[in-house]
Amino acid sequence: MIFVTILELIGTVAFAISGAVTATKKKMDLLGIMIMGVTTACGGGVFRDILLGQIPPTMFKEPIYAVFGLLTSAIVFIPAKYKWNILESEKVTSIIQIADAIGLGIFTAVGINAVYSAGITGVGGGVLRDILGGDRPYIFVKHIYACASLVGAILYLPVRLYFGVTAAILTCSISTIVIRMLAAHFRWSLPKISNEEE
What we know:
Blueprint: H1 2-25, H2 30-51, H3 58-61, H4 64-81, H5 89-115, H6 120-132, H7 138-141, H8 146-163, H9 165-186
């Protein structure tokens, strides 16, 4: 389905930006930035395929996704290397949040479309990005993240039943992105244990 492939490529670019920009914050070199970008962009899909028994994973059968991830990461490296204003520290968080929300929304929709279960692909790449970057995974500590993916996945099922696959994928993607962006903007979080030292 061409529509799904286009969405996957958009999600790949978005998640690659998220991973690569995180890597620039960590002062990684070009190789590290490219690995972070590709891992964030394609890692969730690899998890999904392994869980579904689709071996080898799509990333290795159709390398276009890895190529898009690598190229996107290399492009992100250029302004970081030459210290252009695009990646000033106050802008970096916004870039990561927007790219991450888009990737989360698209891959939640693609994942639920593929396996009829929430969040396997959506949150997997972000978890890998955070682990490789030496951070606690976003889904455990930062605002509403996995919950946004879950809401989008739940909406997918009735919309698909009554309006078809395309409407379901769009509804899932858009609702996940909107919830994630609102959570980041308004700093919505689930209750958690607070540490006075933090």
